[in-house]
Amino acid sequence: MGLWDVITGRSRPKPAKLDMLFAVPTAAITLETTLGLRPTGSGSVCYRAAAGAAFQQTQDEVVALLDADPGAPPVQVTRDEFGFTWLLNQHDPADVSGLCTDLHAVNTALESQGFGPGLLCSLVPFVDDTGRRVGLVYLYKQATFYPFAPRPGADRVRDNMLEIQVRDALTGELPIEQDLGRWLAVWGAPGL
Amino acid sequence: MARSRFVGDKGLTARMTLVMFLLGGLFVGLIAILIAILPPTWAPFIGVIGLGLVWFQWYQSDTVAMKAMGAREVSREQAPELHDMIERLCALADMPKPRVGIADTDLPNAFATGRSPNRSVVVVTTGILRRLDAEELEGVLAHELSHVAHRDVLVMTVASSAGIIAAMLSRGAQWGAIFGGGRRESNGAPTWVVVLVISLVTYVVSFLLLKLLSRYRELSADRAGAYLTMKPHALASALQKITGEMNQIPDRDLRASQAMNAFFIAPAVRGVSLRTLTSTHPTLEQRLEQLARIQAELGRPT
Question: By the CB < 8 Å criterion, does B10 face chain A?
């Protein structure tokens, strides 16, 4: 915020930065070659649903658009305990760029209706042969990525070793969130 | 071109800027008069002490306010839900996460303080945690985070500098009355009487303007908070609950809190707060009206 914004006490809603999502497909290849993590084919967008009819209408249109793809299973819309909505999209695991295009369609639809500031994060889950899962999370406001790996079988414990490995593998390829305090724990995220 | 659902409030901005301009004028006027009537060696002395006080009040705002409220900082392990909620809001607003505090009092209240967004603390009372549901609490937290983003502690402290110096001077003039006695100008009243009158007038005017400014800052924080959570109705219902509950709270608590608020020359505590302090806060009606307007804009179909 600039000096004038401070004086007038006016912070505008922060717009989301969308374009970085298209860096995910190359990152997916790196993850598979270095750590054996493969995309699961699903991906989700997490946003804050605004109150009122306009948002509901926009969301219905987005869901209808994604469901129009005959090969794909229907889109799942869930609400988490913090009042954020998760829109889970299933895709062919081999086609990560197609998945990213779908996620981007969700973002642009929300943004064009003025709901861009409500976008929180996007999550693309990966899994390896031993069943370890890690989600690559994209923060819309910061335009950075970070890994989130829940430890299988444990209750709300993060696998920090795996997260660090993923971070090191992707450094240079994706803008990684440097502030570890911003690595939000998204427990119970759909698809993870 | 993406449309924006953010509507500015030009009237509020204009009124706020005018009030700040007047406060700045008051400060300049006070200093000018002091330089004119006081012996020249005094003016820099008073200026340095006054500004030192203002600086100290701003710099120490977080520790002082937390001590006064009896608040303690809580770690993630002690209050995971609160931390998670604030983290998400900060990610949404793209701001650094403040420290989190809880005050053990039944008074439903919350405040944010601290010298900068990087060193701020958001405190909620156990009373507010018990009364509000998650959605309403989030609305209140978004309001407090907006205070942090708007640097309201800094703005209010700077705005109150004329008042702080005036308060200091009136105290000094009383000392002058006791010890200085009858030293007179060539004609007219003794200098200390002139200083006392000027500083008291400055103090009263600055006090009123500050309350006005504080109300405008509250409305601004309401706006920003509502746009952040995209749920103006949640904040509205929280405000209704808090102000409604206030009438049922025993007197003892109210007095305790008022004493604490009077502790500051400038209201270093910014909070969604009580009806009894409506002088620093807009009326519930004004706040609800503004939230309803935002709600209408967010919900307008294309």
Answer: no
Residue A12 lies in a domain: no
Supply the DSSP symbol for A143: T
Phi/psi for B54 (5° steps) reads: -60, -45
Q: For residue range A25-82, list pLDDT tens digits in order.
A: 999 999 999 999 999 989 999 999 988 888 999 999 999 988 887 777 889 999 988 8
Which residues of chain B from 235 to 294 reach within 8 Å of chain A, CB to CB? none
What is the pTM (predicted TM-score) of this model? Answer: 0.85
Q: Measured between CB atoms, does A178 come within 8 Å of chain B?
A: no
- Compare CB distances from A48 to B2, B230, B300 and report the shortest one's residue: B230
pLDDT category of residue A145 using cuts at 50, 70 and 90: very high
Count of domains observed in chain B? 1
User: Which residue range forms the structural domain that includes residue B148?
Assistant: 10-299
Place B50 in a pLDDT band, splitting at 50, 70 and 90: confident
In a domain, B1, yes or no: no
Strands A119-127, A42-47: pairing is: antiparallel
In a domain, A133, yes or no: yes
Q: Give the number of domains in chain A.
A: 1
B11 contact A CB<8A: no
